[in-house]
Design brief:
Layout (H helix, E strand, L loop, with lengths): L7 E5 L4 H12 L3 E6 L2 H8 L5 E5 L5 H15 L4 E4 L14 H33 L2 E6 L12 H21 L4 E8 L6 H5 L7 H4 L9 H12 L6 E4 L14 H10 L2 H15 L2
Parallel strand pairs: 1-2, 1-4, 2-3, 4-5, 5-6, 6-7
Helix pairs in contact: 1-8, 3-4, 4-5
Family: Belongs to the short-chain dehydrogenases/reductases (SDR) family.
EC number: 1.-.-.-
InterPro entries: KR_dom, NAD(P)-bd_dom_sf, Sc_DH/Rdtase_CS, SDR_fam
Length: 281
């Protein structure tokens, strides 16, 4: 596996959850990591004591912030070898219950932010590939991109768009030395559920009770590191059995899910609201 030492890697959404675990893992592999996040306080806390990692406050849903972020990384490090497009926001709720602001924020962050940051980074990544033999784009997608179920319909649509972008981009740049990867985790133990409903950031000490059920973020970070060190582009479900979510789009399973889940939407709404309330108390 190629060494990650001294590779300049930009990680979005690096202050919490999967992004934070990725920053710590890549820094441990001696990469030069630049992490960004919307909340400067959480970002500073996340990077405390992490050698080889620096932080930049940036909102990836902002076109101005996206341009400034890439320019700053290149200005400070002289190059860009990889981007981990991890920042995302969700809203657990039925479509008719989802506020317009939440819809627009999810699209701007999870899809537009991914596509545009990749676009801005590509000239630098292609230069790195030509000079050093490789560069990487990695998108943290979701198992929700593989099969769409309530109450994550809008979120799933943004992640499916990002996952499709990965497959198309891979066919543009593989022969030019850029590997393009997609990681599709199942449920991960993060603050995703309550933060998507507008809960304010809290300190690490207060975050424990707000975590959703799921696998540890470090398991996802392990696959991110493996992908950035792989000779080939990868699409990896975490855990691997989550790749079975694709079966939800295969007839007649898809029709069965259409009928079964649509009859349970009121129950799904109640369960979702209860889960959020329990973690945002």
């Amino acid at each position: 596996m190629p060494d990650l030492q001294d590779r300049v890697i930009l990680v979005t959404g690096g202050s919490t959850g999967i992004g934070r675990a990725v920053v710590h893992r890549l820094a441990a592999d001696r990469a030069r990591v630049v992490a960004c996040a919307r909340d400067q306080g959480r970002l500073t806390e996340a990077l405390a004591g992490v050698d080889g990692a620096t932080g930049v406050r940036a909102d990836v849903s902002s076109p101005t912030d996206r341009v400034a972020l890439v320019e700053r990384v290149v200005a400070e490090h002289g190059r860009l070898d990889a981007v981990v497009l991890n920042a995302a926001i969700g809203y657990a709720g039925l479509v008719e219950d989802t506020p317009q602001e939440a819809v627009e924020t999810m699209i701007a962050t999870n899809l537009t932010g991914v596509v545009d940051l990749a676009r801005l980074a590509l000239p630098h990544l292609l230069a790195a590939a030509a000079e050093r033999g490789r560069a990487d784009v990695l998108v943290t997608a979701s198992s929700a991109a593989l099969a769409q179920v309530p109450p994550l319909t809008v979120y799933s649509a943004t992640k499916a768009g990002a996952h499709g972008f990965v497959k198309g981009l891979r066919r543009e740049v593989t022969a030019r030395g850029v590997r393009v990867h997609s990681i599709t985790p199942g449920p991960v133990s993060t603050e995703w559920l309550v933060r998507g409903r507008g809960a304010a950031p809290v300190s690490d000490e207060d975050a424990e009770g707000r975590l959703s059920p799921g696998i540890r973020p470090e398991r996802v970070a392990e696959q991110v590191a493996r992908s950035l060190g792989s000779y080939w582009s990868r699409t990896v479900a975490v855990p691997r059995w989550m790749g079975l979510a694709r079966l939800g789009e295969v007839p007649p399973v898809d029709r069965l899910l259409d009928m079964t889940l649509s009859r349970q939407v009121h129950r799904i709404r109640r369960i979702t609201d209860r889960l959020v309330a329990e973690r945002d108390g």
